[in-house]
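Example 3.2
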Amino acid sequence: MQNILIHMLVLVVPLVGLLVSAILSIKRVVCNRSLILLNLFNIFFVFSIAICIFTKWLSTKKVIYFNLGSWFNVGTTNVDWGFMFDGVTIIMILVVSLVSFLVHLYSLEYMAGDPNHLKFMQYLTLFTLSMFILITANNLVQLFIGWEGVGVCSFLLINFWDTRIAANTSALKAIIVNRVGDFGLIFALILISRQFGGTFEYGLIFSQLSLNFIENQLIDWIVCFLFVGAVGKSAQVFLHVWLPDAMEGPTPVSALIHAATMVTAGVFLVIRCCYIFELSPIMLKVVLVFGGITALFAGSVGTVQMDLKKVIAYSTCSQLGFMMVACGLSAYDVALFHLSMHAFFKALLFLSAGSIIHAFFYDEQDFRKMGGALKLLPVTYGSFFIGSIALMGFPFTAGFYSKDFILEMLLIINCPIAKFSMFCCFLAVICTTFYSVRLIYFIFFSRQRNTHYIISRTHESSIYILIPLAILSFFSIMGGFLFKETFVGSSVLMGNFKNSYTIKNLFYAESVSLISWDIEELYLLKLFSFFIVIVITFLTFYIYNNPRFLNKVVGNKIFFFVFRFLQKKWYFDIIYAAFTRFILKISYENLLLLWDRGFLENFGPFGGVHLFWFFTSEVRRYHHGNLKLYLNYFGLAFFFYFSLIIIYTF
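Structure, written as tokens:
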């Protein structure tokens, strides 16, 4: 009972704190500053509880599974308010609570001048609570509540500065595109209810998967629709268009969405439903291909972006592709590992970017207008540099342990589809290194492009911003080394660059080893990835420090074609805009003009009114007050009436 109460505090504390904050803000009995701190301490308390739960789970590895009561019953379908705290859930709670607490702390200073600062903190708390509901649910219907909750909160936070038209359209774009994924998840729930006897609980569903009556074709469709939901939420290719535009919200929102909440929900869904995905080899290959294409697409488009936050946004999309690749290889623990490590260095990158933007008093985001910030922002430079090298996968950083393992698996597995994804992922690594070094060069090492007036007012951020950067910097460097055993087992190859390890899946009792290569070959793999990072780094600095060489490259026709193709984002936005205009035009011409204003209005209210008006107008012509004509009409009517009677009788 005590364990249940401790685990329930993860949900109860932010919920109660949010309600108290909302009520007191309406009653205006407490100042806003106190309520802002209340939201901050609520999340800090949840993070403290998450640490206790995580340490206890490390020693016992027990799964806490309990129901609070029945929610609703419809026929054979019974849905309870249930919660499950296994390894996946506890790790996600720890990551989400840590990143959320640091974002709350960061927002104390970053949003201090905003008149709606309290509302912003309440939205952040609600966002975190929705994510907790999603990851702690023991059934898919309860997960769907958190799933929709993070979608609504993302809309509110992206559109927080609602006087900006760009923020309005970006928020609408995010929620409309995510509706496509939501429909996929709803269809999956319908098929799951049909296939598994009306149950939505993970335990009952997974226990039936080994039975003979399971229809393989229906399982393929279930996995397909589940993956559609994940594609929408995790911004995989074709449904990725909302993610870069989500940068219209405040920077702390971008950090929370991209690091630990919204975009990770799709990957979490695939990890949570891994047993179902394992029964559909075809869909696993689809997941593998989608992940590889997403990694390459987002990485390549990020190389030509000029907005600081959008470059980091496309890097998020690319890293989500790596996570999907790991899921497609059935390495769900590795996907969870990369998800957790990515949360640290991606939150660090966004918060460092916010510190850079906040430091320039005019809040500039175009990094071409920055420069020479190394001496002005030394602490921010250190954190941004650490986040960038972790993103690139520099040896012994968090990204090195998680992302490079995915690349090794792609090299080891002898499958044509895996080789295709490997090709895409290695190109994505090259692109990631290029745009990361490009950002560092333009912001910190290039010449100053601002006036003396602007430079004199550029300043390092306050302690409320620098503390989260320092904590995230530590985890971006040491996170992979500290937590690798937790995720992927205990067999670590010793020596420099020899950090490949066997897969110990969190969901299975046995260890599954895919690594059959020699130590020397793994050593070369690590060196190859490190070699790419070093070569692209030096090449990037060489290009931007040699204007003549850069002019030759820019003047090349092939470069112009590739640059235009990438600048147009592979023409996805243009194609979607043309398709949307076509649909709206067809709808206008057929549904509105022909059906609505045509058939329905002519034969509906307008047609009825006109018909009644025509009838009464014709009748009114015979009401002219002439008594002689009235008698004639009466005589004719009397004659016809008796004529009909006579005809009918005889």
